[in-house]
Amino acid sequence: MTDSMSWLQSIVLGAVQGLTEFLPISSSAHLRIVSEVWFGQDAGASFTAVTQLGTELAVLVYFGRDIGRIIAAWFAGLRDSGRRGLDYRIGWYVILATIPIGVLGFVFKDEIRTSGRNLWLIAGMLIGFSFVFVIAERLATQRRSLEQLTGKDALVMGLAQCLALIPGVSRSGATASAGLLSGVNREAAFRFSFLIAIPAVLASGLFSLKDAFEPSGEGVSASGGQIALATVIAFVLGYASIAWLLRFVSHHSLTWFAGYRVVLGLVIIGLLAGGVVSAT
Length: 280
Prior knowledge:
The protein is mainly alpha-helical.
């Protein structure tokens, strides 16, 4: 029989989602870890996907003007080739970057909800991908801005976004690292990362909505009120996190987050080795 979520769980996990979704430290890993360490059970991939709707709503609000302008320019460019400027290209780039994760997310949806949530794997990804951040920063030239983004950059970042299907990698960390390695500056890489996450996360959250209420084999069942509360908390804290992160990455590198990830990964390995928490 599936366990029921408590109101405390929904509050805590909503806060964790909002605080960690946009930072390159993996919100899915933190939700999995906090669920296991604090509450002794996994809230489930479906609950994680649904609460991400709150943080994506924060993106829609924060970048509302940009998103509206891009959508309008994309439709205008379809009708009139003379109006195909930067925003029109960005619209196509977002579509191009979304295709890979849409395909792989559908193909591996069962693995994402089961074996992909093993804490040994998550700890390994937290540590291992930290070195990708360091390498990306070391090799980054940061020559190009968002205005100079190309279709190739979009595809590379879209492929990198697929790695976020594995808890512990970090969507923003993977896509921003790919952008840096492609020569895009750090702020532009994070801005585009936020944009390409919107279609994927919204689709994943809506697809998982039913399973969050009635999990089949994984996670705990949550009431409509609990899911709504967690999503609202995620929205509020997520909005604040976006503003903070964009200011931070303008002057600081990803290596600041790499150190935290390594420490957290080692702590989880220690807890697993000591039998304090269960891997599955």
